[in-house]
Design brief:
- The longest helix has 14 residues.
- This protein is mostly helical.
- Helix 9 crosses helix 12, helix 14 crosses helix 17 and helix 16 crosses helix 17.
- It is built from 18 helices and two strands.
- The protein starts with a helix and ends in an 11-residue tail after the last helix.
Length: 404
């Protein structure tokens, strides 16, 4: 295992880089013609950088856009003639930061994950999905919503060892965050759901969670006229759009917008050398040198693979595949916003980030690391905390009516 991790770390040296520009990473995902105007449309509408930034300021003032995005840098690329690659390469070349060489191991977070062809992202669908995410009437008891266990004010989880569901039951595993979940290759700790759509079906029906059924969900939604109209707008042309499949499609569409840009580390990768403290930069270096990067890589610092972590009696992926080789195998968790998603591990048994770092180094890398190094790595991990989109965490006004 140690040799494999060493090889992977060395391989990653050459394949992970941050050469994309501000527009591609922070803007292009939403400005795709569906959620917001494309680059071409904007250039036709606003003839100068000044006009563009004036429109941006107006949009941020009324809450249509988050104020923290790098608008000036994006405007420079749009109107200043700088290409994304040239701009980023120039910053890397002129940087005096001694730690900048470690940037090549990491990948900035794009604005949006890949959108599946059978569930295109539209404003109408995202709006509907947000309302369904927050609506407890999808659960049998009418008390539990997606946001109950994946609270967008608490880092996309509930900070519990194991979430409390229907009739105070628990499922035995820690709730992963929904933030940036669209970038994951598979969902759940054991990877039993390949997509966000399939993942959404699970908690809705699990007896220890929302304990509902497709029939209950659809019947209740059809009894609320406002929802019927919203489904018609989100799924135009369908004769009967209020279906369980469309419910999970809408929730998944909303979840694909729950991405957290503008963390200190994202700003650092994009050229702001002052975004991290020296301790955090030192932690980044140790994160690479100890080999953490072998499994925790890519835009959300998860390779999406399954690795053996024998921690308690939970058999992990084996419960899905029944393959003996999958005993104690778990999907690599993402690390974005890890500082606000304690407790850690699949059973939520560790509350300290520093302690989690030391345990993982010992069990996965075979290395005992000092308290000082663990603190530096934990400080680096705290720089991965980004901003939850304002629109996502503002409670929606749900339609009235109380269906049986």
């Amino acid at each position: 295992m140690k040799k494999l991790l060493t090889v992977l770390t060395l391989t990653l040296t050459g394949v992970l880089s941050a050469n994309a520009g501000t527009w591609e990473l922070s803007c292009s995902g939403c400005h795709n013609g569906s959620l917001a105007p494309t680059k071409t449309t904007l250039l036709k509408k606003y003839h100068s950088k000044r006009e563009f930034l004036a429109a941006v300021r107006k949009a941020t003032e009324v809450g249509k856009m988050p104020s923290s995005l790098p608008f000036e840098s994006a405007a420079d690329e749009l109107y200043g003639g700088k290409t994304a690659e040239t701009n980023t390469t120039s910053k890397a070349t002129t940087s005096s930061d001694e730690y900048s060489k470690y940037k090549r191991f990491f990948k900035p977070l794009p604005a949006l994950p890949k959108i599946p062809a059978d569930n295109p992202l539209t404003p109408e669908k995202v709006k509907l999905g947000k309302m369904l995410y927050y609506d407890p009437r999808l659960s049998r008891s009418k008390l539990i919503s997606c946001n109950t266990c994946h609270n967008l004010s608490l880092g996309g989880d509930d900070n519990q060892k194991s979430s409390i569901g229907h009739r105070w039951r628990t499922g035995g595993r820690n709730a992963p965050t929904t933030l940036n979940s669209g970038f994951l290759r598979v969902q759940f700790w054991d990877g039993r759901a390949p997509t966000l759509e399939e993942q959404a079906k699970g908690p809705l029906q699990a007896h220890v969670e929302m304990n509902s059924t497709p029939k209950i969900v659809v019947r209740r939604l059809k009894e609320i006229p406002e929802y019927v109209e919203l489904f018609k707008k989100a799924f135009p042309g369908e004769k009967d759009p209020v279906t369980f499949e469309n419910v999970v499609k809408a929730i998944a569409a909303f979840e694909r917008t729950l991405n957290t840009p503008n963390s200190p580390f994202q700003r650092y990768l994009l050229g702001d050398d002052s975004a991290l403290t020296k301790e955090q930069k030192e932690g980044m270096k140790l994160f690479v040198k100890y080999g953490c990067i072998a499994c925790h890589n890519g835009p959300v610092l998860s390779d999406g693979q399954f690795h053996k972590f024998k921690w308690n009696k939970d058999l992990g992926r084996y419960r899905v595949t029944k393959n003996p080789k999958d005993k104690y195998m778990f999907r690599t968790p993402q690390l974005l916003n890890v500082a606000v998603t304690a407790p850690y591990f699949h059973d939520g048994s560790v509350n300290s980030l520093e302690e989690a770092v030391k345990i993982m180094a010992r069990k996965e890398l075979g290395k005992e690391i000092s308290n000082e190094d663990a603190k530096k790595i934990a400080d680096f991990l705290r720089s991965l905390t980004g901003e939850v989109p304002l629109e996502a965490r503002v409670l929606p006004q749900l339609p009235g009516n109380n269906p049986e």
